Input
Amino acid sequence: GENVEQHPSTLSVQEGDSAVIKCTYSDSASNYFPWYKQELGKRPQLIIDIRSNVGEKKDQRIAVTLNKTAKHFSLHITETQPEDSAVYFCAARSSGNTPLVFGKGTRLSVIA
Amino acid sequence: GAVVSQHPSRVICKSGTSVKIECRSLDFQATTMFWYRQFPKQSLMLMATSNEGSKATYEQGVEKDKFLINHASLTLSTLTVTSAHPEDSSFYICSARDLQTSGTDTQYFGPGTRLTVL
Output
C-alpha cells in the first residue's frame, strides 16, 4: 500500500519568512495530493491540493509543487504569519474510492 | 465546502463500557466514510472504511469486533468502541467525500471526538 514520508517534523521560522514542507510517496498510482492544516484539538482543514496532471498550484501565499518522476511534493508558505502556526499534514491517494494516507505531520511555529 | 458533523465532541467513560460516536454528512450524501484515530502529537491513522449498506473494511491491526462500524444510511456512519479500555483513549475523526455536489473528491473531516477512558 501507499506510504507517505514527511519532513521536517518541526519547523520554526521568523514572521515574514518562507516555510517549506516536503513529502514523498511510494505508490506510483497515487494521483491526488492534498495538504491539511490542523490546529490543536480541531479538525484537519484542507488548505490546498494538487492532482497528478499538474506540476504546481498556487493560492495566495500557499503553493504546492509535484514531481511525479521523483514521487515527491512540497508545500510552500510565503510571508508567514503567526496564525500560520499549526500542524500540517500531507496526504496521498490513488484513484477510486481509496482513503487518504497521511504523512506524520510538521509542526510549524511562526515566531513574531 | 461540505459539512461533516460528529457527536459527541467529548466523552469520558469508565473502563469496560461501550461508546458510540456518530458521523453525519449534513448537506451531501456519502456512500463512503472513513474513520481515523489520532493520538497526541501524532498523525491520523486510518482505522476503517465505512461503506453504506455493506460491511466496513478494517485496516491491519484494527480489531473489527472492538470497533464496530455501521453505515446504515447515506448520511450517517457510527463507530462503537466496545468494552473500552484506557489505551483506547484517543481523538477519533471521521471523514467523507462529497462527490456529487463539489464534483471533486475532496475529503472533509468531522470535528472529532475526544474519548477518555478512565
Q: What stands out?
A: Chain A touches chain B through 20 residues (CB under 8 Å). The longest strand of chain A covers residues 30-38. Chain A has a mean pLDDT of 94.
